[in-house]
Design a protein that fits this description.
By secondary structure, this protein is α+β, with helices and mostly antiparallel strands. It has 3 domains: 77 residues, conserved putative lor/sdh protein from methanococcus maripaludis s2 fold; 110 residues, Beta Barrel (Elongation Factor Tu (Ef-tu), domain 3), CATH 2.40.30.170; 123 residues, Beta Barrel (OB fold (Dihydrolipoamide Acetyltransferase, E2P)). The strands form 5 sheets. The chain has a 6-stranded antiparallel β-barrel with strand order 3-12-15-14-13-16. Strands 2-21-17-18 form a 4-stranded antiparallel beta sheet, with no helix packed on it. Strands 4-11-9-6 form a 4-stranded antiparallel beta sheet, with no helix packed on it. The longest helix is centred in the N-terminal third of the chain and has 34 residues. The radius of gyration is 47 Å and the shape is elongated. α2 runs antiparallel to α3.
Length: 399
């Protein structure tokens, strides 16, 4: 029993010793913490807003007006038969996409009946001419009345007209066009019997194409369209140049054209005015260099129209504008000034300012929430450089 009491005393002493060590450690750490001097308190510095600025420079700007449209042929023809008969021949070029020359025969209607009609008209004309000559001779000798002479003259004139009609009908058996062009669609074929008015196909001219370009009233202030007086005097006018662009065969391509006229009316639904641009040889049929990309009819193209050239214009990034009418100016004391400006024109990237700010002034490019006149800012690139002290030499030297 005495041995058990001794074991409990040892455990109690051991626990007391561990507790004393822990208490001493905590107490020592607390005393060391109190002996350490408190850190130096520094007042937080309130920094002004940092902004990026851009100095304004006056420029001479060549404005470009953007538009778009679809390529259309300048002339499109629905071919119809003028005489009746069977189609006896067709040119191999008379297929969709076929290219033909001016005056080339595309189809031929059976001419047999019309050749006979010409021969009959020629024979009748010769008969009427003989009768007229006889009537004139007899009248001069006093054997025929004036009325008989007049009747013979009328019969001769009628025979001449019949011959002209027969020759014209024979000529109409040839289907030709007065322009170089391309076949859009073929609607008749070999052996088919046609009557006057039967649709044979659709063709269009390839010498040049036209594109109608819609322009708003604002656009018209920067584009000089040919006037109606110029067009009336010359038949067509030479307007501003146009640069067209589109994707062809998966690659971007460009073509040059020119405004030749304005349509002279305002569309009542869209309130736009249409200018008509022309592209010469759109299919590059006469391109000897082989560098031009053909521009098929029906292609949708973007158009950049050469506009007015304006001097002393201040160009700023579009993002620098506030509400399309204000700029934030940073003065020489780096304080803000909110200015109302006159906007001449704007596009997706830039705004062109005519008045309200001056060349040499700086504008803020950084977007500032709730800017206030007189607000102090820091300008990027003008902040003082922070000096870095060199580290102390702690290497041990030989004494």
């Amino acid at each position: 029993m005495g041995r058990g009491i001794q074991t409990m005393d040892r455990k109690t002493k051991r626990y007391l010793l561990i507790f004393a060590i822990l208490a001493g450690s905590v107490g020592g750490a607390a005393m060391l913490g109190k002996m350490k001097p408190p850190p130096e308190k520094k007042a937080a510095a309130a920094l002004d807003t940092l902004v990026e600025v851009m100095p304004l420079v006056a420029e001479t700007v060549q404005f470009t007006v953007q538009s778009q449209g679809t390529v259309r042929p300048r002339t499109e023809t629905q071919l119809s038969a003028e005489v009746s008969g069977s189609i006896v021949s067709i040119s191999p070029k008379f297929i969709a996409g076929g290219v033909f020359a001016a005056g080339e025969t595309l189809l031929r209607i059976d001419p047999a009946n019309y050749e006979v009609a010409v021969e009959q008209a020629e024979a009748l004309l010769e008969q009427r001419r003989i009768e007229f000559e006889g009537a004139r001779t007899l009248r001069s000798q006093g054997y025929r009345a004036e009325s008989e002479y007049a009747s013979a003259a009328a019969a001769l004139a009628s025979a001449k007209a019949d011959l002209v009609r027969a020759q014209r009908n024979l000529e109409r058996t040839y289907i030709r066009l007065p322009y170089e062009g391309m076949v859009r669609s073929k609607l008749a074929d070999l052996g088919q019997y046609v009557n006057p008015g039967t649709l044979l196909g659709v063709t269009f001219a390839t010498d040049y194409a036209e594109i109608r370009l819609p322009l708003t009233d604002e656009d018209l202030a920067f584009v000089d369209l040919p006037s109606a007086a110029d067009i009336a005097a010359a038949g067509e006018a030479r307007g501003p140049s146009v640069r067209f662009s589109a994707t062809r065969a998966g690659r971007p391509a460009a073509w040059s054209g020119r405004i030749v006229r304005g349509e002279g009316v305002i569309d009542e639904n869209t309130r736009v005015t249409y200018a008509v641009a022309r592209i010469e040889d759109p299919f590059a049929l006469h391109d000897t260099s082989g560098q031009r990309v053909p521009l098929p009819v029906g292609t949708f193209v973007a158009a950049a129209i050469e506009g007015h050239r304006v001097e002393a214009v201040l160009r700023v990034p579009r993002t620098a504008l506030r509400g399309n009418r204000q700029l934030v100016v940073v003065d020489v004391e780096n304080r803000l000034q909110i200015r109302n400006v006159t906007l001449l024109r704007a596009d997706a990237e830039y705004a062109y300012i005519y008045s309200g700010v001056a060349e040499g002034e700086r504008i803020a490019l950084t977007v500032i929430e709730n800017p206030v006149n007189g607000m102090k800012v820091r300008v990027a690139g003008q902040e003082p450089e922070k000096r870095t002290e060199p580290p102390a030499d702690v290497s041990g030297g030989a004494g």
